[in-house]
């Protein structure tokens, strides 16, 4: 699969194969449920870029015949004020100081939006938007969100930890040296259950998964620096290079604990998963597709 060995080329080819099959099955079953397109990969690997182009591609392909929405897990971060309160409540946990880790999102808001999309009844839904440049890179939710009309046919959702599998029991946790060394991760692991149950482990959601597999997870430091430089250039606000490093440091235990198993499982999508191996320059070096249904 994938004659065009580029991220977008492989992604479009994957979607062109599986989305029509989904619509055929939905029509035969007289079903109006939305198909989620879940995009997961390390920070700076190209998730948002790919999600933007997937959205444009699907709009051009299906025009007015299908309703399509795009969102990021980042859009559901706490407001700046709520994040400060959260920081204080978990001040002993370094990994929860500032946005990023599982637990630093407005779960009730995320649940309401996901539940509305699953129900898919005729109505309007306002999806939140988040501005990462505000407060010198600390970020804040935008005053106005993005209003979409339900029912939806396709929902694009991107996020850096989508598909990560939380450790299930005390015996599994006790076997992990990282959790003994980095005890702050125990709370992050517990928080991750909310997201898994709501999204990639939710039996009510049918999904296609697109996964970016970094050839070296350390690439995330360089990728995230490039992102922040572009953000500062376009908005005049953002984190310094040292702040970016400290920011990524909060994420890294999660990569160490979950990322390799997640990539190897090829199980992000409940229908099918595309895994793209990418190098530091985001060139594709491997393409794997796994169909579940």
UniProtKB/TrEMBL annotation:
Predominant location: cytoplasm
Gene3D superfamilies assigned to the protein according to its UniProt record, in alphabetical order: P-loop containing nucleotide triphosphate hydrolases
InterPro entries (UniProt xref): P-loop_NTPase
Compartments reported by the entry: Cytoplasm; Nucleus
MF terms (GO), sorted A to Z: ATP binding; kinase activity
Keywords for this protein: ATP-binding, Cytoplasm, Kinase, Nucleotide-binding, Nucleus, Transferase
One cellular component (GO) term of this entry: nucleus
Family: Belongs to the GLYK kinase family.
Designated name of the protein: Phosphoribulokinase/uridine kinase domain-containing protein
Source organism of the structure: Torulaspora globosa
């Amino acid at each position: 699969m994938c004659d065009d060995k580029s991220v977008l080329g492989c992604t479009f080819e994957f979607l062109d194969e599986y989305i029509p099959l989904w619509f055929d099955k939905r029509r035969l079953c007289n079903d109006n449920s939305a198909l989620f397109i879940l995009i997961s990969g390390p920070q700076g690997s190209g998730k948002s870029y790919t999600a933007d182009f997937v959205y444009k591609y699907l709009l051009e392909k299906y025009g007015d015949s299908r309703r399509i929405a795009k969102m990021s897990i980042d859009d559901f971060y706490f407001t700046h004020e709520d994040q400060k309160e959260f920081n204080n409540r978990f001040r002993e946990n370094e990994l929860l100081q500032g946005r990023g880790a599982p637990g630093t999102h407005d779960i009730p808001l995320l649940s309401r939006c996901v539940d509305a999309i699953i129900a898919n009844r005729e109505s309007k839904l306002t999806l939140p938007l988040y501005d990462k440049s505000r407060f010198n890179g600390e970020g804040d939710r935008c005053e106005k969100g993005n209003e979409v009309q339900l029912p939806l046919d396709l929902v694009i959702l991107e996020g850096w930890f989508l598909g990560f599998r939380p450790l299930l029991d005390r015996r599994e946790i006790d076997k992990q040296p990282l959790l003994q060394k980095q005890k702050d991760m125990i709370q992050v692991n517990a928080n991750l259950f909310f997201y898994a149950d709501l999204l990639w482990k939710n039996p009510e959601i049918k999904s296609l998964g697109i996964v970016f597999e970094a050839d070296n997870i350390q690439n995330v430091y360089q990728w995230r620096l490039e992102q922040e430089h572009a953000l500062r250039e376009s908005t005049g606000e953002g984190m310094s290079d040292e702040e970016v490093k400290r920011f990524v440091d909060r994420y890294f235990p999660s990569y160490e604990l979950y990322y390799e198993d997640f990539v190897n499982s090829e199980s992000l999508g409940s229908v099918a998963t595309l895994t793209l191996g990418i190098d530091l320059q985001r060139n594709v070096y491997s393409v794997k597709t796994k169909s579940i249904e």
